[in-house]
Fold this protein.
Amino acid sequence: MKTANVLEFKDTGEADDPIAGVAKELADLKAALETKAANDNTKLTDRLNALEAKMNRHSASAANDNSQLETKAFERFLRRGGDHMDDLEKKTLSLAGNTAITPPEFGKEIIKLLRQFSPIRQYAKVVTIGSSQVKHPRRTGSTAATWVDDIDDRTESEPSYDQVTLTPYEAATYTDISNQLLEDNGYDLAGEVASDLAESFGIAEGSAFVTGNGTTKPNGIMNASGIQSFITGSANGFPTSTPADVLIQMFHKLPAAHAQNGTWLMNRNTLSAIRQFKDGMGRYLVLDALTDGAPVTLLGRPIVEAIDMADIEANSYPILFGNLQGYRIVDRVSFEMLRDPYSMATKGQTRFHARKRVGADVTHPDRFIKLKVSAT
């Protein structure tokens, strides 16, 4: 037989005031219920936290498993081809015949290595696009405020814009690998391929980003229109008496907003020459980094060495200064690999074709100034 819940009134020693006794019992009951609720909420919170942590572990584990699956599938593709892959591995690589889209981790590794050969990529604005071209709006004029009296007519002003069209172009190469090496599991095949491809594409990109003509390749920063020039004042180089003054004046020709974020671009031969320049106080303009990993600087701004920049000679443009965020790089297609086991079969080799699509151009020429070796 069940006993009904009964609110029991205990003797509180206040027989003369029954209302006070009832109030105390109710307060005690309320406190007991709140304590129980708090305990239940704590247990519920702990349980929810445990479930969330478990879910996060599973998510991280799933992401890691997926990355491992992509890497494993790509390794199998390189070694044995698509015919020896299961359906899940083929879907992972978006495999079509013997052509595969490289997994994201492989692509990221190549991009990281690319920067060693294509330094402008480190400083330029890089975006990924999903179309055959992209149009970037560029402001050519802005509104202008004028001072007016209380009831004077206001003057209208309008911003003006044009467009820069960025078109990705295809870069491609191939490499031949011994079939015996492909069968050997004792080395990092994907890493070797990534290193080779990064060097090939990095050299091609580095040249195009500096001197490309915009036809079948990106438009190089030194070929872009609209960038102002500053002359050395000497037909074949710098003035012998005050060479440092040329660079100081060039630096201050660029608006402060861009100069404060500017980077110097030159090749190693030019850097060797200007390392010898001193200001009027006898101080060298070029300063080596005080800490590992920091860049060499000129007038407080970093120097980027680009092998494709011109040497110091008559009518050349050996130095560029500016904010490289004004140069935009668009990546259209990540690395795509074609495995060809037939072309080099008689030599016991398999040929791998690699391709990617990338475009680039200057979007803000007002952020740059380039030095021309000229007397006038």
User: Anything to note?
Assistant: The first strand starts at residue 99 and ends at 101. The radius of gyration is 34 Å.
